[in-house]
Each structure stands twice: as C-alpha cells, then as structure tokens.
Amino acid sequence: MIINYFKLIIKKLSSGNFSWVLFEVISKISFNKLELRIDKVVEKKRIALSNKISKIFNNIVQEGPFKGMVISEKQFWGQGDKASKILGLYEKEIQDLINQIQEKNNFPTFIDIGGADGFFAVGSVINKLFKNCEVFEISKRGRQAIEESAIKNNVADLISIKKEANEKTLSLMENINNSVILCDIEGGEYDLFSENLIKNMYPSNVIIEIHKNSNISLNEFENKFKDLFSITKIIQGPRSLNSFSELKNFNDNNRALITSEGRSSIPEWWHLSPKKN
Known about the structure:
44% of the residues lie in helices and 14% in strands. The chain is globular. By secondary structure, the chain is α/β, with parallel strands linked by helices.
C-alpha cells in the first residue's frame, strides 16, 4: 500500500502536477499534527477525570481482588489510568484470571516482571491472595513508587523489590516453579523467555502481555512454550460502570474515558498453564 502511494507521487511529479503533490504533503502533515493534538486533549481529559474519581472514592479500589487497596495520588505509570484502577477495572481480565488461578492452586508467591507503579504487586498481597510478592522494575522511579505504595498499604514486609529481570535472576528464585508469574515489559518478553528459563518456570502459571512487533514472529514465540505449556489467548473486553451509582450522572463521553486505558490497540495476553507430564 505504501509502495503504491509513492508510485502515485512519482507519477504526479513526472506529469508536472506539482500543486497536487504539494497539497497532498501538506494535508498529511496537517492531519498528523491534528491527530497528535487530539490525543493530547483526550489524555488531559482522562487525567482530569481520574483526579475526579480519586476524590469521589478517596483513592480506594472499589471492586475486584484488589478491593480496599489505596492507590497513590501520583502515578509513575499512566496518571490517566488511576480511575480504572480505583474502580477495579484496570486490566480486569488479568485481575480475574489471577484470582481464578489462585482459587485452584493457592501458589505462595506472585512474581511481577515489569511492576510499573506496583498495582499488581501490591494488589497481589493486599487481601492475602498470595503470601508474598517478588517484583522486578528496571526504573528507579518505578521501584520508589512500588515501595511507597507498599508502605501506604501496610504490606511492605510482604514485597521484595528487585531491579532488572533476566534469565539468571529469575532462574535463581526459590519459587520460580511454584508461582503465578505476570510479565509486562513492553516487548522485552521476546528476549527474556529463553528455553532454559521456560524449563525452570514449569509448572508455574505464567501470564504475558504481548506487545506485537513486525520484526517478531508470534508463531515462533508461541512454539517456545508448547512442549510444557498450554496457551490461552486473552483479549480485553468491554467495561461497565453500571454498578457505580456515584457515576450515574456522568455523560457517555466521560464514562468511556473513565474506562479507557489509553492504549493504541486492543491488548492481548497469553496465559501459559502447565501441561501434565
């Protein structure tokens, strides 16, 4: 499609239709600038709504397995996501999945690879869903945010905060093969999950957020796990605010932005459940 577009440009230039080419280029630049401005306005509105939700519910998670958790006023990762976290809707499919896995298996440890501001790390122990959590976060600001959140929620003694996750640091963990492992590292998953690490993780349950990359074959990545794990692919579904009477007077646009996670595309996760020997 892009090649055909450039062929059209060359054809117009060859025929001397410079005004068409100039108009086309200006239109493309103007549209991209307009789209960028709209994105900024939308994100600003998401943040304003998140701050409003914070005041209504006093920064306390209202529903889901992390109910009762106190969300920090300032978020290291996604200030606009604060509303969906407080309402218990942020990555709800994964919250529910972790809860379901625990009901069946009762793993002692939750391992969070890419902890961001600690929503899942702190949430995993807030209601004694897990006995303890090991969380990896490469950013110093992120590790500080996780520590502050853990202290705020009185669970600092249940969470161990580490720096970079790699094959060595993960393979040396005592419970690497007896945990629920959540990985969200913005595309780094393709390098992290080596054949050796996959063997060491078995028979833990593993959840990976997939960040699609045109240079990566998803089929090849999937094949890495197939000997030891069954893979269930999870797509984000719709959200509802109907259970929150406090929000009944919010208009449709604001309700949609409250449930939005500001993503560029619909997220996908893979749940790796261990096959029986």
